[in-house]
């Protein structure tokens, strides 16, 4: 079957439900605003955070080794 025109939301509702209920109202939803282009991606943030954790782990291991060496010397 070939349609001559596109049906509106109201016409579709009437065809589906056979009438109009006064309790039902149609609400137009405003289009979403465009997303902003960010300078840093989520992947960049993850990599930076991972690098900071690795650096912190290396510092903690160095401190632990120094503490163990000091304990052995005592």
Mean pLDDT: 84
Count of runs of 4 or more consecutive helical residues? 2
Structural class of the secondary elements?
A: mainly alpha
Oligomer description:
single chain
Account of the protein in words:
There is one protein chain. The chain is built from 2 helices and no strands. The protein has about 70 residues and is mostly helical. It starts with 8 loop residues before the first helix and ends with a helix.
Features:
rod-shaped; 74 residues; single chain; 0% strand
In brief:
The protein has 74 residues and is mainly α. It contains two helices and no strands.
Topology:
Layout: H1 9-17, H2 42-73
